[in-house]
Design brief:
The structure is a single chain. This protein is mainly α. It is built from 5 helices and no strands. It is elongated, with a radius of gyration of 16 Å.
């Protein structure tokens, strides 16, 4: 594998990982009855038309059919990809969710 092929493979791997991150975000939103597009626009108001997010939303399943996605995992994935603005908005939503959930004491 030459340098250009390696570089292209690294780019492809990153893009695939990024798509997975977007899907995790979208499914987490669906699982918590949140609109992934409106949260995204709140974080990135100048990026309204995000095709990758639209594609990911089409791949989501109903809340009842989804595996659980922990809030910690979502936050880690968002931060790993440098989506700090979106992570900030998601953290705010996590705090709202935690206030609504009864504590097991």
């Amino acid at each position: 594998m030459n340098g250009n092929e390696k570089e292209q493979q690294i780019i492809n791997n990153y893009q695939n990982d990024e798509k997975m991150m977007i899907l995790i975000y979208a499914q987490w939103c669906i699982n918590h009855e949140l609109d992934p597009i409106s949260l995204y626009i709140e974080a990135y108001p100048y990026q309204e038309n995000n095709n990758a997010l639209a594609e990911a939303i089409e791949l989501t399943v109903a809340k009842e059919e989804s595996d659980e996605i922990s809030s910690d995992m979502l936050m880690n994935v968002l931060q790993l990809f440098g989506n700090n603005d979106l992570a900030f908005i998601v953290q705010r939503e996590i705090e709202k969710i935690e206030k609504q959930e009864p504590r097991n004491r």
